[in-house]
Amino acid sequence: MKKTLSILLVLIFISITSFSQQNFLLKVSGDVLIPQTLTLENLHLFPKIEVNFIDKVGNKHVYGGYSIQSILTKAGATMGTNLRGKNLSKYVIAKCADGYKVLFSLAELDSNFTDRVVIIADEMDGKVLPKEKGPLRIIVPDEKKPARSCFQLVELIVKTDND
Predict the structure, then answer these.
(1) Of 88 and 8, which is predicted with more confidence?
(2) Where do the Oxidoreductase molybdopterin-binding domain residues begin and end (predicted)?
(3) Structural domains for the chain
(4) b/e string for 37-58 if b means 16 or more Cβ within 10 A?
(5) Can you tell me whether residue 147 is helix, strand or coil?
(6) Overall pTM surpassing 0.90 (yes/no)
(7) CA separation for the pair 134, 23 (Å, rounded)
(8) Could you give the CA distance from residue 7 to residue 68 in angstroms, rounded to a whole number?
């Protein structure tokens, strides 16, 4: 009886996890031309990128995901040759499921300004992110503190400084 109950609980957990990931949506909103609501399947249409990352305890990992620049470009955020003058005051707030937020200037996400590629990861070391870290997380390679490599990403909000 205990074995049957254990198997049933495992199957329920797998079903709930699978269902929640299937219904997951990443929103891209704010100062963009084409607001986006992306499923995990939509993200797979972007080229996959891998980056190396050292976590806060010093462990090395390889994360797989999608360039945040390409996702913002698809939404019509000001990137590339248009990112100049007043547009350099534009920024992105990455919002996580628990309310944690981090900020990036658009310039630090644009390959015209930096060689660092910030990704929205869905894999770590070749496996799907664990539930407490995913289904998506931002990975910012080469920062001394991994505080902006936030977990459970749900929205990217593009804003403009109006001062």
Answers:
(1) 88
(2) 19-142
(3) 25-160 (3.90.420.10)
(4) ebebeebeebeebebebeeeee
(5) helix
(6) no
(7) 13
(8) 39
